[in-house]
Amino acid sequence: MTMQTLVLVKPDGVRRGLTGEVIRRIEAKGYTLAQLKKLTATREMLAEHYAEHEGKPFYEPLVEFMLSGPVVAMVLEGERCIEGFRSLAGATDPTAAAPGTIRGDLGRDWGAKVQENIVHGSDSPESAAREIGIWFPA
Ligand code: DAT
Ligand code: MG
Fold first, then answer.
1. Partner of 78 at 20 to 30 A CA spacing, among 22, 35, 115, 123?
2. Domain of 84?
3. Which of 25, 49, 103, 120 is the catalytic position?
4. Tell me: the pLDDT tens digits for 24-53?
5. Predicted confidence (pLDDT) per residue in 63-120, tens digit
6. Is the CB of 64 under 6 A from ligand 1?
7. Per the structure, how many domains does the chain have?
8. With the CA atoms of 68, 16, 62 and 124 taken in that order, what torsion angle do they form, in degrees rounded to the nearest 10?
């Protein structure tokens, strides 16, 4: 099966008008955009999506942030696109993320309880399958 990954342009990225820039980088890298939509998440979707982080100090701020506006959800396809998109995205902390990456070039610390870092990308084939099911239910 073709490898797929779930990418979100988070509410900060959509608000700041960076959706096109994120898609430009994905297309320039050579991945295929298989599915794309703009939507506002629900608490239920985010509880599933971020289940691994429940109980952490940034969990509630993360959910509130992800509910703060629409996101653009995408399914990318391509050989090794899971690790490839994580590499394009850069490190979680946008202050430390390398220049050249989405988070390093476009993100910064705004002093909030959760890091606002423009994009989400699945971190494993298992996460990708699970997350695609949440954002693009059959
Ligand atoms: P990633 O999005 O790089 O996979 P993650 O899954 O560990 O990172 O965390 C999900 C999001 O939560 C992340 O994109 C930003 C936020 N976050 C993670 N760790 C944090 C921390 N220590 N303080 C504040 N926000 C954090
Ligand atoms: Mg993660």
1. 115
2. 2-135
3. 120
4. 999 999 999 999 999 999 999 999 999 999
5. 999 999 999 999 999 999 999 999 999 999 999 999 999 999 999 999 999 999 999 9
6. no
7. 1
8. 120
